[in-house]
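Researcher: Please predict.
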Amino acid sequence: MTWKIEEVEKTPKLKDPVLIEGMPGIGNVGKVAVDFLIDELDAKKIYELFSYTFPHSVFVNEENMVELPKIEIYHANFKGKDILLLAGDVQPIDEVSCYEFCEELLKIFRKLKGKEIITLGGIGLQNIPKKPKVYCTGNEKKMIKTYCEGTKASNDLKGVVGPIVGVSGLLLGLAGKEDIPAISLLSETFGHPMYLGVKGAREILKILNMKMDLGIDLKDLDKEIKKLEEDMMKKTEELTDVSKTTAINKVKNKFGKETSYIG
């Protein structure tokens, strides 16, 4: 078994759903954004994904009980728009499992007749950015233009973004092979493994809120910061050395010592 996929709740009939991915990565920018959307949109879990390729660790939860790491897909319907939200405790930690995961995810996406994909991630800087910039890239120029027009997102990534490692990048490439429009919104954040990029997540959420008309109140994000920090930093501490270091080292070996991890 490489991937075990469990449908935990029968999926309602969806109309052109958009998938938003936010997995752990630099500053956990994407994870903070997607976890916030899950709460704000009252999203319901529809799938759980598990693999033996996950880090060989468990989490201790608030009830002092252990939990295996997991990846989940949620569904929300807002103003008639169907949104799929991909969240998780970990990313696949090697190349093969990441490719296999993205392929399995695209199978689910096609089954649900998905329309387009948006991945979220962070760009690690040496210093904490006061006003994080957001960059946009993808596999279709029209979609990139849509999310840059009228927002602060920039599609001028030359000299800023290197290889986009992990699900946030690979999903764009594999979706492109199947003619599925996909973009990535990448926000600047501090590159320290213990830093939580809430400001970067907020900038990405502003763009999603505007372009998708989600009607979320970003002031609520400030109220969530303390809880997010407590929950996220605990899990980041537990798995950073296992998963992120492995991924970074693999990339450095391939692209050189100066390559920074993005995801």
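Model: Residues 257-261 have pLDDT under 50 and may be disordered.
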